[in-house]
Structures are given as C-alpha cells and as structure tokens.
C-alpha cells in the first residue's frame, strides 16, 4: 500500500516542554546559538526537551539478569484510570534511539485509552549502561522488564492459562529500525508459547540480512572491536566533522526529509540533535558488535506454529537512506502472505518517521493497527 495523501489529523501533537517556554522561544534560542553543540549541552536547556506527557508517565525499573542488572527508564500509562483494554502496546526503539521518538504514537494510543509501554534501551536515553550489548541479552532484558511491569497490573481475567502468562494481557509489539529485530527476536525467543502477541508492527525495519555484522565477517568484527576499545576514534569524526554542522549533520539529514519553517518540525529536529550528541560512540559500536540477524525461516515457522495470521504490519519511508524501501521486498517475499497483512509506504518521509511525518504515521497507525485491535 502506497499512501498518497493524508487527511487532517484528529489531534495536533503539540509538544509541551517542562521549561514552560514556547516552541518558538526554544527554536529561536537554538537557531541563534553560535555553537549549537555547546548551547544544547547546557544544563539549563534540558527542560526545553523534556515533555510533560513523557514526564507524567515516566517510571524507572530495576531489571536483574543472571549476569547483569540495569536501571531502565520507561514511559507507560498502565496505572492510569480509564484504560479500557487488556492489550498493551509495547514500543521498542532502535540503535541510538529512545522512547521520546514514539511520542506521537504514545499520545495516540493513550487518547484511545489503550495501554502502552515504551523504554530506553540499555546505554541510550536515561537507562543505565552495560559493558557490552549482545542483542539477545537486550531481548532478554525486555522480556524480564515486561514480566516485571505487568506483574500485578489490572487486566481482564481469562480462563486461558496462556493469557495469564502476562496476567491476562495481550501485546502489540512495535519496533523502530533495529527495534524491529529486537521485537522479532523477543517474539521468537520468549513469546511464542505464551500466545500473547496479537500484532507485530515494524517501523522502517533494517535490511533483513546485514552481512557485514555477521560473526563470520572477521575483518568487520575486528574493526568494530577496535573502535569499541578506542571509541575516541569515532568521537573525533562525530565531534569535529559531523555534529559541528548542527541540523545539517548526518544524524538529522538522514533521519528527516521534511524541510520547512514549521516550528514543531524544527523543535523535533533540535530534540533529535540533542539526543544524538548525548549518545556515546562506545554504546553504538557495542550494539553493532552484539548484532544478531533474525532467522526468517525459523521466524515463519514460529508464526505458523502459533496460528498467528494477518497480524504483521510494516511501515516504510519513501525517502529513507538508512532503511531504503527496496529492502522491504525481502520481507514481502520471506514472511508468510497470510501473516503479512499490509506494507505501508509513507511518501516524503525519512527514517525517523514519527518525527518527520507524525500526522501521517498516526493516521495510518490508527487505521491499520489500533482499529484492527478494536475489531
């Protein structure tokens, strides 16, 4: 499905900074800064990029794995009164991302009085760091976090023991970029037998097989390991050659396609820029070293085993250089046609689709995901 035109969104996803300043004031201050990196790092600027909606739903959880422990930042509405459904929308960010990037979708789900849970991955946002980042360990952490968060939370009672695995909740897994792989691993590794996943939503998924990150590509692995041990090598490039360009840096140009004078769009770009400069090079490389490709043959077998039908929705972005839409052809061929319900291509949109075209993402997410859960 190729989206040609969006109708007017039912909600204006207006950001409400905790600083109390207007978006115009914040944008004007950032645009007038002689050195944007120095300006955006000032402690006094932090509240400009912390939103009331996120703050009102923020909670930290201590998660214990057999070989490591973490303090994970989450955003959820599970304690809110008036949540009408036992379905929980779980949002998993990608490489160098954080839960704020889902903010328009979180507000959309909340406005429909559905439950949601988003998290910062270890080492990103405000979650604690690890010494290394094996992808399946990250997946295990998400699974334990889900169990911990949903334990004891009110849910619709069911006689089905499988549903009681999460206290009667069902899940809609939403991944962005690398988070798509995390969501697929989570489903395959931990959730198949529980039969609690109703829908998988993949937002701009990466290339299905990234050969360079395979463990048998020893040269690539050694190069990544070298940078992981000497992250200042990547810091030099990021600090001296890329981030000094401000909104023309690669982390903005490749993530946004929209170019106009809309204040909210500019604000989101500065917000993204602040997140970019806060991410550590060692953490980014650590995730690449720990990368684990999805075995799509095995994944399809799991889908067939559980009888999960027509419950996978993929969003691609027409102008995405990070995950080009041509990569989606493999997903169309590899995933069982009975399971892949729809592939949606958003026009004039790049990789950070929830920030670049939030109105279009929300409209289609409402129609293709939320309304489908309601039916």
From TrEMBL:
Transmembrane segments: none annotated. The gene is SMKI02G3130. Pfam families: Abhydrolase_1. One of its GO terms (cellular component) is membrane. This is AB hydrolase-1 domain-containing protein. InterPro entries: AB_hydrolase_1 (IPR000073), AB_hydrolase_fold (IPR029058), AB_hydrolase_sf (IPR050266). One of its GO terms (biological process) is acylglycerol catabolic process. Residues 88-358 form the AB hydrolase-1 domain. GO terms for molecular function: monoacylglycerol lipase activity. It comes from the Eukaryota.
């Amino acid at each position: 499905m190729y989206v040609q035109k969006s109708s007017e969104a039912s909600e204006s996803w207006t950001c409400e900074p905790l600083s109390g300043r207007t978006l115009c004031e914040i944008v004007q201050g950032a645009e007038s800064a002689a050195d944007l990196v120095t300006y955006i790092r000032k402690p006094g600027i932090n509240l400009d990029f912390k939103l009331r909606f996120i703050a009102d739903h923020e909670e930290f959880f201590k998660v214990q794995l057999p070989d490591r422990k973490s303090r994970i930042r989450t955003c959820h509405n599970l304690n809110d009164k008036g949540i009408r459904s036992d379905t929980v929308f779980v949002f998993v960010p990608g490489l160098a991302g954080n839960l704020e990037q889902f903010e328009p979708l979180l507000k959309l789900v909340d406005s429909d009085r559905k439950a949601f849970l988003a998290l910062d991955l270890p080492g990103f946002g405000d979650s604690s760091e690890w010494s290394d980042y094996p992808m399946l360990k990250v997946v295990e952490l998400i699974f334990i976090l889900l169990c911990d968060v949903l334990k004891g939370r009110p849910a619709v009672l069911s006689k089905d023991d499988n549903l009681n695995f999460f206290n009667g909740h069902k899940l809609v897994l939403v991944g962005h970029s690398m988070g798509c792989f995390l969501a697929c691993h989570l489903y395959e590794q931990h959730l198949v037998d529980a039969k609690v996943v109703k829908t998988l939503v993949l937002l701009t998924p990466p290339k299905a097989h990234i050969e360079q990150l395979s463990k048998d590509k020893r040269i690539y692995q050694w190069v990544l390991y070298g940078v992981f041990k000497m992250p200042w090598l990547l810091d030099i490039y990021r600090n001296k050659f890329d981030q000094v360009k401000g909104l023309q840096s690669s982390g903005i140009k490749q993530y946004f396609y929209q170019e106009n004078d809309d204040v909210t769009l500019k604000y989101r770009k500065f917000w993204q820029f602040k997140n970019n400069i806060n991410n550590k090079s060692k953490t980014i490389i650590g995730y690449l070293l720990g990368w684990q490709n999805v075995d799509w043959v095995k994944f399809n077998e799991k889908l067939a085993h559980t009888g999960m039908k027509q419950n996978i929705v993929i969003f691609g972005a027409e102008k995405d250089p990070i995950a080009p839409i041509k990569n989606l052809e493999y997903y169309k061929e590899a995933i069982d046609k009975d399971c892949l319900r729809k592939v949606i291509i958003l026009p004039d949109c790049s990789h950070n689709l929830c920030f670049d075209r939030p109105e279009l993402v929300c409209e289609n997410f409402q129609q293709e995901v939320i309304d489908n859960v309601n039916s």
